Amino acid sequence: MTAVLTKAAELQIQLTDQRFDEWLLEDVFHIRWWALPLLFIIDICVWWKVIDKSRLNEIILFAAITSIMILALDELGEELTLWDYPTDVFPLFPPVAAINLSCLPSFYAILYQFFSKWKGYVIASVLMAAFSCFVFEPIFIGLGMYQLLTWKPYYGFPLYFAIGIITKALLGMIKAINKKNSSPACT
User: The pTM is what?
Assistant: First the structure.
């Protein structure tokens, strides 16, 4: 039995074919393309040198939760055509995986590691949000790796801030549940 494709599925097939063809002709092995895997590798190496290995499980969980939030928000923004990534490492994966899966999560994880108290963490998160919006994003725009469509850089400020705050709060709840359930039962 042959499945009948919906109009949306047909358009998705055409879009995927178009992305792949464009990637082969314009992106792959271009200087911007090389910058993304290089950024990923450098970031992971620096992160590994800086990270407190005695808290590795906790910090990796923090980075993973952050990555999930970043990927979800990024996919939403791209789907709503708020922004676009003209250069993809691979056209079938989330666009700027180097940023979404290494740079931003590792920056947040380093903040988490060095600022265990909420007050310091909130201040560091504000600075991180400002730096992301007003330094990193313009650099990526200037390099042609990120394109704003209907989005403005300052719109991201509360999102960058919220990602850090929500992740720290979630991890605090996870640690509390773990502590509660790993303590000896009262008899």
Answer: 0.85
